[in-house]
Batch of 2 targets.
Target 1
Amino acid sequence: MARPPHRAGAPALLRGGAMQIDLIDTFLDLCETRNFNRTAERLGVTQSTVSGRVQSLEKALECRLFRRSRSGTHLTGEGRRFEAHARSLRHGWVEARRAVAAAPEAGLTLRLGIQHDLVIAHLGEWFHTLRGALPEAGFYIEVDYSTQICTEVLEGGLDLGIVFTPKAHPDLQIESLGDVAVDMVTTTPANVADIAPGDYFLPNYAPAFFATHRTLLPKLSAARVSSGSHAVLSGLLKAVGGATYLLAESAAELSAAGLCQPVPDAPRIVQPVHAVLHLRNRHRAPHRRMLVLIRTKIGARNGADAAQTENCK
């Protein structure tokens, strides 16, 4: 029996029976950087390797994907049409690898990415709730910053991201989970007017937080020491002394331990928290269940914080 016609470029994507996912990774990175040198640096390969991968992919698809000129690298019409399919291929590949590598005792493994600054105050409570509500599931928990978490969700490495600053993308579903409270504390009794910028550690948890802080406290926004890490700010406060904004739970804990005290006339700032998930997962029951549980926990914690603040007045 005669074999069906063989497309000349097929081995580029399926070589030796194995999916050449590095071709897809290279294509998607070039879609973002539009620069062969930059993509080579990010992927840890040579520029000639990047060029070779693009040529292999173009050969397999029998079309040009990029157009290079003095003004830079641009997607062709075929490249733009292939981009969505490439993301789908990448996501499907990651999902397949996760499925075959899942712990045998777990019927489902859910991968959760959490903003660094939420871990100390919230992770334990959230995980206890999630494990109780989804006892048949296994969990993988990753801690990172918003941009990387959004990238991992987009590429299929994470099922759900809990972030301060979501990165908009056509393939991502972004939902509000509520707000977390952030309070100013000081190691030396003082009102806001008494705190000098030189004694203040400027928090930069997220662009929205920083903008609100600058509007409410313009003088302190000129502080010379700044950090976007809650752990760094807390550590500086305990080691050096001064004033800063911490998540309400941490501020209350340190105050109860006698390490600092609230600044009585400082405004409380709220930081929005968002969930990020791939569009493919937006209607799946386990993902919706996780969203509901975490949103409920944030709402309950906000109510408790408000009551505690009212009692302290």
Target 2
Amino acid sequence: MILQKNDILANRVDALFALLTERHADGNGMNSVSVGSERELFVDALLKNVFPPHYRFSTGDITSPTAARTGEIDVVLEYPRGFSFPLLEGGPRLYLAEDVAAVIEVKSNLSEQWGEVKSTAEKLDLVQRNNMPQMYTHMADQIEAGAMSVGESDTLVEQARKLRTIATQTQQLSGQKIPLYAVGFDGWNQLDAIKSKVEEGVVDGIFVINHKLYASSERTATAGLSSMLTFLKDIQAHFEKEKINKTFPQMISYNINT
């Protein structure tokens, strides 16, 4: 079946592209004090407007249970039910690695600033998630033992089964690096070029706004207006993993006592 083009949606996405490119062009030549303007424009004009209000896109540092630290990251996508710690309202935050869905590096020109993206990727390699699958397995073992002592309670057996499922899911997340996406207002102008950069393994996806190009490590590559929708869909997919993350607060794996 051939779907009819939805001009209503196409016009709205085209307007978002125009808004981003025009406002970025207005800011060209900005001084070093305004170095974060691309990031703020992308977050305020697109991410905060498109995603529901309970999603938070902020800047800050990420730390892990091993006390590793990334340094400041452009845009941190935070699980809505996760924890993060600001010093000042509206200022940079400190994030726990397990409560970060993904991060985005925003550049004026990706091809010229690719070295900065690689530097961010190296920082992210320092922090790894510890979603503690062994904790869920231990809890399941205890519940099953209790079920046997009371005569195989169906309720307890079902609780244990759910915990083992969570243990399997969190095992898949533990040790994984945090996904990194690179967004450029300008950069490579050929889809094959950004596909090749993604295949290097430095980032999980590249979105070039001015040329309407997007490619990801999931072998998704799109050009034109649909590039924005595909990028947003991939970002949303990382938020969906909150179903695993939210089951138990991960702060218990962080030792802050002297």
